[in-house]
Amino acid sequence: MSTYTAAGDRMAADGRAVVLVRNGTTEPRSATVVIDGAESATRHAALSPGEVGVVAAPATGQVVAAVHTDDASASFSFDPETASAPPLFALRPGGVLVSSG
User: Fold this and answer.
1) How many C-beta atoms surround the C-beta of residue 6 within 10 A?
2) 9-13, 22-26, 32-36, 72-76: range with lowest mean pLDDT
3) Average pLDDT in the 10-32 region?
4) Confidence (pLDDT) at 84
5) What is the spatial distance between Cα 99 and Cα 1, in angstroms, rounded to a whole number?
6) DSSP letters along 4-73, please?
7) Is the pLDDT of residue 56 over 90?
8) How far apart are CA 69 and CA 84, in angstroms?
9) CB–CB of 52/24 below 8 Å?
């Protein structure tokens, strides 16, 4: 996983879409993160309780990010060049919540 710094950073300044995934449960969770943009990128994240993972993939224009767990999935469409912050996917018991940056 890579690192995202919010201080004045634009997500797409280097041609990447950035997605945050937070484990909001009390148990370790695994998730599959898919970012479909200029290229399709799939990453697997194993997160401890409260841990936040950062996934970045090459992208231009509108992209769709999706997070899948054994229990649920969620997707979100955004333009990394105009978004003010990366979308946050929160893993919850039995679900995945998403909020825009």
Assistant:
1) 10
2) 9-13
3) 83
4) 85
5) 20
6) ---TT--TTTTTEEEEEEEE-SSS-EEEEEEEESSSEEEEEEEE-TT-EEEEEEE--SSEEEEEE-SS-E
7) no
8) 26
9) no
- Residue of 81 and 29 predicted with greater confidence: 29
Tokens 């997070």 sit at which residue?
67
Write the single-letter amino acid at 12: A
φ, ψ at 100 (rounded to 5°): -80, 155
- Report how far residue 96's alpha carbon sits from residue 80's, in angstroms, rounded to the nearest whole number: 21
Q: List the one residue out of 76, 95, 97 whose CA is nearest residue 19.
A: 76
